[in-house]
Every structure is written in structure tokens, then in C-alpha cells.
TrEMBL record:
Belongs to the TrpA family. The alpha subunit is responsible for the aldol cleavage of indoleglycerol phosphate to indole and glyceraldehyde 3-phosphate. The lineage of its organism: Bacteria, Bacillati, Actinomycetota, Actinomycetes, Propionibacteriales. Gene3D superfamilies: Aldolase class I. Its EC number is 4.2.1.20. This is Tryptophan synthase alpha chain. The keyword Acetylation does not apply. It is an enzyme of class 4 (lyase). The keyword Amino-acid biosynthesis applies. It catalyses: (1S,2R)-1-C-(indol-3-yl)glycerol 3-phosphate + L-serine = D-glyceraldehyde 3-phosphate + L-tryptophan + H2O. Tetramer of two alpha and two beta chains. Pfam families: Trp_syntA (PF00290). Pathway: Amino-acid biosynthesis; L-tryptophan biosynthesis; L-tryptophan from chorismate: step 5/5.
Length: 265
């Protein structure tokens, strides 16, 4: 079993969903991103998505785009992302990288996989890579013991869901809304149906992301999904802060609210 498999075995035994938190490496700086991720873990995040800042983030909304731009302007490189993974994994929490495919291909698929595994990372979330085009990643991930987290959307056909579920490992990322990432006033009405469709073709864990921004929304999603994925709302805590400590305090408070909401569901 991978670390992600072990996590979901534990949360299922505890009759709760896992809380997955996303932050970009290098935002606002590499050192600050490490401290911010540690704050999330200390306050209840079960699995960390370390974002690899990218110059053309087609799926990301303005909040994550702004954070990525800050990280890139500060000179954040792939090697920095790997070091943030190393620091996060040392906290004892499963750590994956969320990245568009181009940076992986540019570094070399096997080299990227090897470096990620050596740093303690356990997998990749690849929003713009579909299993049909992922043969190189499939081979490299299996060779280095990494999980393959693929995405499905409300527009995915049943056949596409089955194919994606078969190729995925760790968990399947269900994007509950059509559009880019970002906080929303209410969770997507499409999410329960999307998860139900996935349940019909797989027993692998399903995480729901895009839009969750508070404990009440997290509780809604936790009622039908194996994991609640939160990104923009956590990033916003740091974007809106006037100094690092204020950002960390806001991050801690939001993480506790999300976790508390999920435990009430």
C-alpha cells in the first residue's frame, strides 16, 4: 500500500473524509511556503498538494494565478519545489505535487519521478494529462512507487470515467465545477452526481475539489466524498495578509474550521 492508500484506509476506518490542502511552492517565498504548509498540517490537513508554479496555468483562477506569479517572480524553480516536498514529507504527511505536464516533460519524466520519490513525495496530480497520453508517466511512476492522480469532470463520459479510474492510483480528483479554480459561495450541485457516477465504476477513493472555502461547505462535500480538496481559500489567507504571521494565523484558523466542519458531517 502507498502512503495515500494507508491514509484512506485510516480515514475510512475513522468514518471521515480526508482533508487535502493545496499551496504553491515558493509563495510568498520558498521558506515561507514551507512554514505555511507546516501550519496547515499542524491544524488538520491530512494530505498536502504542493503546487508547481507555472507560467500558463489554464485551469487556475485569479487567486492561484496571482500566487504562482509571485513565486515565479521570486525565482522559484523545479528544484525548489522538490525541496518544499522534502520538507513537507518530513512532517509525516503524504505529499503530492500538482503540476501541469510541461515542466515534467522538460525535466525528463523519469528524472522528475526519481527526484520526487527521493524527496519523499508520493505522487503527482496532473490536471492537463489524460491517461491515454500518459504512457511515459505510467511507466516512471510505477518504477518509482508514485501514485497517479487523474482528474474527471462533470462533462466526462462514463467510458472516460472508467478509463481514468482504471489508470489512476491513490485517489481520483473530481473537479466539481466546470471552470477554473476559485472560492465559491456554495458548493457545486453537480458534485454528488459526479461522485455517484465514479462510484459506479470504481471503489478507489474520490476527492472533490474546486470551490470549497469554509467548514460548512467542507461538511457538505465530506458527506459524499472520500476527500475534501481546498486550494484557493487557503492561498487567499496568505494573499490577503499584511505580514507573514497574520497569514499563518488566518491559515491555521481556516484549516481548523474546515476540519471541524468535516468532523461534524
Amino acid at each position: 500500500m502507498s502512503q495515500i492508500d494507508e491514509l484512506f484506509a485510516r480515514t475510512r476506518a475513522e468514518n471521515r473524509a480526508a482533508l487535502v490542502g493545496y499551496l504553491p511552492a515558493g509563495f510568498p517565498t520558498v521558506e515561507q511556503s514551507v512554514r505555511a504548509i507546516a501550519t496547515m498540517v499542524e491544524n488538520g490537513v491530512d494530505l498536502v498538494e504542493v503546487g508547481l508554479p507555472y507560467s500558463d496555468p489554464v485551469m487556475d483562477g485569479p487567486t492561484i494565478q496571482s500566487a504562482a506569479e509571485t513565486a515565479l517572480a521570486a525565482g522559484t524553480k523545479v528544484d525548489d519545489v522538490i525541496e518544499v516536498v522534502r520538507a513537507t514529507a518530513a512532517l509525516g504527511v503524504p505529499t503530492v505535487v500538482m503540476t501541469y505536464w510541461n515542466p515534467v516533460e522538460r525535466r525528463g519524466v523519469d528524472r522528475f519521478a526519481q527526484q520526487l520519490a527521493e524527496a519523499g513525495g508520493v505522487g503527482l496530480i496532473t490536471p492537463d494529462l489524460i491517461p491515454d497520453e500518459g504512457a511515459d508517466w505510467d511507466r516512471a511512476s510505477r518504477a518509482h512507487g508514485l501514485d497517479r492522480v487523474y482528474l474527471v469532470a462533470p462533462s466526462s463520459t462514463d467510458d472516460r470515467m472508467a478509463l481514468t479510474a482504471e489508470a489512476a492510483s491513490g485517489f481520483i480528483y473530481a473537479t466539481a465545477v466546470m471552470g477554473v479554480t476559485g472560492q465559491r459561495q456554495e458548493t457545486s450541485s453537480l458534485a454528488p452526481e459526479l461522485v455517484a457516477r465514479l462510484r459506479a465504476v470504481t471503489d478507489k477513493p474520490v476527492g472533490v475539489g474546486l470551490g470549497v472555502s469554509n467548514g460548512a461547505q467542507a461538511a457538505e462535500v465530506a458527506a459524499f466524498a472520500d476527500a475534501v480538496i481546498v486550494g484557493s481559500a487557503l492561498v487567499r489567507c496568505l494573499l490577503d495578509a499584511t505580514d507573514e504571521q497574520q497569514g499563518l494565523d488566518a491559515l491555521a484558523a481556516l484549516t481548523r474550521d474546515l476540519r471541524a466542519g468535516m468532523e461534524r458531517s
